[in-house]
Design goal:
- The structure is a homodimer of 347-residue chains.
- Chain A has 347 residues and is an alpha/beta fold.
- Chain A is 42% helix and 15% strand.
- In chain A, strands 2-1-3-4-5-11 form a 6-stranded parallel beta sheet, sandwiched between helices. Chain A has a 4-stranded parallel beta sheet with strand order 7-6-8-9, with helices on both faces.
- In chain A, β6 (197-201), α9 and β7 form a beta-alpha-beta unit.
- In chain A, α10 packs across α11 (264-276).
- The first copy, chain A, starts with 17 loop residues before the first helix and ends in a 5-residue tail after the last strand.
- Chain A binds a DNA duplex (30 and 30 nucleotides) through α1, α2 and α4.
DNA sequence: AGGCAGCGTGGGAGCGCTCCCGAGGCGGTA
DNA sequence: TACCGCCTCGGGAGCGCTCCCACGCTGCCT
């Protein structure tokens, strides 16, 4: 024996099989299998014998064989549409993954990462799913017209979305309270005395962006009998989009004294436009972002922003998915998690 | 269930098997298998018949069965040590993943994401690998004393590192030219006329941090017969680390007129310390970062920094891994990729 | 005409596991 | 003592695929 697994020298490291474990333990294959899968219907004697044999041989079950026999794969996929690959550079995504992975590590499940960037990859994914390659799917960054959720529904594969497509999302999801967070942000601006409050929205085919806009509107409406004007500029979630939207807003409404941006990156762009226009932040125009992403701490001035419990969202998604996998017929579950205002210097 | 694959209503969408495909095509299982796996030893007639049957039934091979029969899994793992989970929020990581995924999508391989955050998870990974759960491993953010690469070597599993542990890395790797990038950065500072150039390093148990320090030293040494003083402060790769290191540097060497930071996050911290000390950037002190991460564009002023071809590195890693998987005996390959200076306002 | 490659083909064996059924062993009751 | 029920246990069957061997056919050489 000259390797750490204690296998005999020479041969190409053949993994021991259940059969060999059973033989060494002096029991049958069935009993060995029961022990390994934690069935209660095993005598104490048999259990310890098998456990000893497992330890001695360094036995690890062959997943492919198990998957073939059970037609479960013990794997779930985290699917990321390509358009959102930039997501990766957001703590949002890092935290989702971190939460997912943490929750998953308590189980035997594996995490498959699937990026879908074009039609070809979409079909590839579709084939995966049809072939029962995974027990469930986690889907992030859902657009309203995304074909992926529809496909998941059709296939009847357990699935949980991060975010939702609309208020009546048929699939399970975990979402942040986007409307509430936005309202909180705008209330903060109102409290500071701002009265000409604009918003730069994200792409409105995403429910999250819509909800943030709705929250903005709700805050305005509940203040001073809704007499404050709505100042809305639509952008995508990019920095240049934020810059352009803010520039347009300044032109359209020079008296603007605050802006709620639907993301930090958007806010970073808005800050650039404000600086270019010679406005001081927060003295002339107060700015609030959303996400509490890494850029929020590094802009000048650092951004006041809305934080979502992202890591916890990742964990919750996994928990929901496991429930669905364990109990396929069960009702879909929806979970909306509270957000939190992080006050820095920009508002 | 009336679904788009055109299966009969009622039953729980049973996937067709090779056997059924063969039957429908009027050939044997062997022939059907050959067609599906693109073997050339098949008549044209049989090939088209099988292809028609596959299309008609919507056949997708069962991977578990294939894996069991071939003892290959058609999956590779991307392993991320937990300490580096913050990596996720770097474009570095996003680009690595993006490159990996792009290259992988040309194959049948799946990408497993494995976060290793503690001893328990380390053992779990170890069990995975021993159980032959993956055909190969991609490992990022390697520390010098990391047990993972050692384990991979012992197990003889095909593996490629992002970065290396030292100059004589026995495993295959793809790395950026860290030393070259650093030298380039410092040369840039010299060209600007800086003469008291400091550096804030990363943790020196990472070869990348060492190499950047070496590049800094090389640039100083090759200039003016090496008469310029070395001003080194060691930090970890965090913002607060950069702030502390810079503060210390200012105290130790008040005349410092430039600082090369081993990462952008470090540089962001350094900027804070400089601002706190009343130094203007770049007029009083020029600053250069490394990575061209997302923070680099958002600091005040935006950072001059060194970019690495990260996405291409991800692709290259996959290519090397595939070679190793296809040809297990082959010599390890090492690839060092050029870096590029991105000049913004901080230097 | 006979023999012999060479090719395409069919199907048996087997990958390692779980599921399940029937066989015992045991204690308790009549 | 005879019988019954409950548990534990062993091992056959089978999951869907690939690998490989043996078979028959064609076409060419002797």
């Amino acid at each position: 024996m000259n390797d750490s697994a204690g296998r005999p020298a020479g041969g190409p490291a053949a993994r021991p099989t259940l059969e060999e474990v059973a033989a060494l333990a002096g029991v049958g294959r069935g009993t060995a299998s029961r022990v390994i899968n934690g069935s209660p219907r095993v005598s104490e004697k048999a259990r310890t014998a098998v456990e000893r044999a497992v330890a001695e041989l360094g036995y690890v079950p062959n997943r492919a064989a198990r998957a073939l026999a059970t037609s479960r794969t013990d794997a779930i996929a985290l699917v990321v549409p390509e358009a959102e690959t930039r997501l990766f550079s957001e703590p949002y995504f890092a935290d989702i993954i971190s939460g997912v992975s943490a929750e998953l590590s308590r189980t035997q499940l594996q995490l498959l990462l699937v990026l879908v960037r074009d039609q070809r990859e979409h079909e590839r994914l579709s084939a995966y799913l049809r072939a029962d390659r995974v027990d469930g799917v986690l889907l992030v960054a859902v657009h309203q017209d995304d074909p992926l959720p529809v496909m998941l529904e059709d296939l009847g594969i357990p699935a949980v979305l991060a975010g939702r497509r609309g208020e009546h999302e048929p699939l399970s999801y975990v979402a942040a309270d986007n409307a509430g967070g936005a309202r909180m942000a705008v209330r903060h601006l109102l409290r500071r005395g701002c009265r000409r409050i604009a918003t730069v929205t994200g792409p409105l085919d995403m429910e999250g962006a819509q909800a943030r806009l709705a929250g903005y509107r709700a805050a305005l409406a509940e203040s001073e009998a809704g007499t404050l004007p709505e100042l809305v500029a639509v952008a995508d979630f990019t920095e240049s989009g934020g810059r352009a939207a803010m520039a347009e807003l300044l032109e359209r409404e020079p008296g603007v004294d605050a802006v709620f941006c639907a993301s930090d990156v958007l806010a970073a762009g808005a800050l650039q436009a404000l600086r270019a226009a010679g406005r001081r932040v927060p003295q002339d125009v107060a700015v609030v972002g959303f996400d509490d992403s890494i850029v929020a701490r590094h802009t000048d001035p650092p951004l006041t922003t809305v934080r979502q419990p992202t890591q916890e969202m990742g964990r919750a998604m996994v928990r929901q998915l496991l429930e669905q996998i364990a109990e396929p017929g069960r009702a879909r579950r929806q979970l909306v998690m509270a957000t939190e205002l992080v006050v820095r210097d920009s508002a």
